[in-house]
Design the sequence.
C-alpha cells in the first residue's frame, strides 16, 4: 500500500474526497457536448456514488459495531440505517423528478446558472480538502512552532 493511499484512508478529509469527485463528475457532465461524453461522465459519477453508498452500508463504523457486540446496543446502527435509507430515497426521488421535468420543460437559464455556481463551489472546495489530505496544514503549523 502506498503512503498516499494510507493517508487517504486514515484522515477524515480523505473520506469526503470521493463524494466531491463524483459530484464534480456529474456536474461537469452538463457542460460536455456529445451524448457519449455526457453518458460516460454521468455513469462515472453515479457509479461512484452507488459504490460509496454500498461501502457505507456494508462497513459500519467500528465503535457502533463494538457497542452492538459488547452491550447489545443497536441504537447507533439503527439511526445510521435510517439516515442512509432516507438519503438514498431522497436522492432517488430527486433524480426521478429531474428526469421527468427536464425533458419536457428544458433547463431554464436560472437553473443553468445555479448549476454553474454549484459546480464552482464544489471545485473550489476540492482545493482545501486536497491540502488537508496531503497534510499541508500541519506542515505549515509546524513551521511556526
Sequence:
Amino acid at each position: 500500500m502506498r503512503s498516499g493511499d494510507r493517508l487517504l484512508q486514515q484522515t477524515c478529509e480523505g473520506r469526503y474526497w470521493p463524494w466531491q469527485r463524483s459530484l464534480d463528475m456529474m456536474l461537469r457532465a452538463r457542460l460536455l457536448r456529445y451524448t457519449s461524453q455526457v453518458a460516460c461522465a454521468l455513469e462515472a459519477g453515479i457509479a461512484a456514488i452507488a459504490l460509496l453508498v454500498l461501502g457505507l452500508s456494508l462497513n459500519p463504523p467500528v465503535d457502533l459495531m463494538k457497542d452492538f457486540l459488547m452491550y447489545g446496543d443497536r441504537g447507533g446502527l439503527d439511526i445510521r440505517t435510517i439516515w442512509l435509507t432516507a438519503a438514498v430515497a431522497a436522492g432517488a426521488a430527486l433524480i426521478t423528478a429531474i428526469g421527468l421535468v427536464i425533458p419536457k420543460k428544458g433547463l431554464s437559464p436560472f437553473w443553468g446558472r445555479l448549476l454553474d455556481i454549484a459546480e464552482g463551489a464544489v471545485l473550489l472546495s476540492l482545493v482545501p480538502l486536497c491540502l488537508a489530505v496531503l497534510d499541508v496544514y500541519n506542515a505549515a503549523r509546524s513551521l511556526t512552532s
